[in-house]
Amino acid sequence: MSLQLSVRDVTKRFKTGEGVTGISLDVTKGELVTLLGPSGCGKTTVLRSIGGFLKPDSGDILIEGRSVVALPPEKRPTSMVFQSYNLWPHMTVYENLAFGLKIRKLPKAQIREAVADALRLVQLPNSEKKLPGQLSGGQQQRVALARSLLLKPAVLLLDEPFSALDAKLRQEMREELREIQTQTGLTMVFVTHDQEEALALSDRIVVMNHGHIEQAAAPRHIYDRPSTLFVARFIGKMNFLEGVVEGSGIRVGPFVLPNEDRIEGETLVGVRPEDVILKAAEAGEGMKGLIKQIMVLGHYAEISVELEGGGTVRSFQPKDAVRELTAGQQVAVAFTKSIAYPKIGDN
Asked: Is the whole model's pTM more than 0.85, yes or no?
């Protein structure tokens, strides 16, 4: 696949001390890449730098092989979808969508056809005559998305576009955006702080923290093999157990785990709750503990176990599998997968 976007060693610092330092990122044509991280991590700074709304202190940004770092937003082959819909309230849906095309002096018949096609793509056919105030929040966001699609950008930028919507509508919009991306083959860079959104939407996730990239990889790899302790803590839920290097392995309670990364000294071993196995205390080897709490969360249950040696481990189990378990019951804890990190720098 050809390279559509290249961010090269971009640095942008603010007086507050926040910003980004030395960010480099390549996005291939047709790829949907999500910038994910906590507030203040720099993800929006990167997005706005790509769109031309911020000028980097140093570095370069190339789109389709051409540097755009000196160009204003309106001269870049990008389009931005914001969290706020930015629709003209006194204009109809058609007028809002046609505005940018009229500036480009396209023929009226071509504009009508393009607007109708865009509205069909976002599942709002025959809504041209409505005013934004007559639409729901989700419908207004669809119109805002259609407006950006009409410009046929080389890279579509999306700045937390669904964060103002309720959970059910947010999920629907995610599915629709992914379908639109599949149909159009557009290259998209999406910003969110919502992990579920990032995992569901993305071809690749870029996890950011304190102005730098912690890890960039496919969603499954980010979840299964977080490369840093920050990513392990940030993505999903993770149990952490203290371990000590022993020979060629890492000892955690009665278990000696493989030390694949050759970590030295004290370690933290991460285990996803779905990889925690609970057995009857007398059933065999394991870390002994008492069930502290059982919470049924729809189709699964989250069980908190207080370990004899200290600390708490959480386990996800099918809801039908916990009928025989009760708070205060003694169990043996084991796990099917784990990943270790040096304890140094644990914060």
From this structure: yes
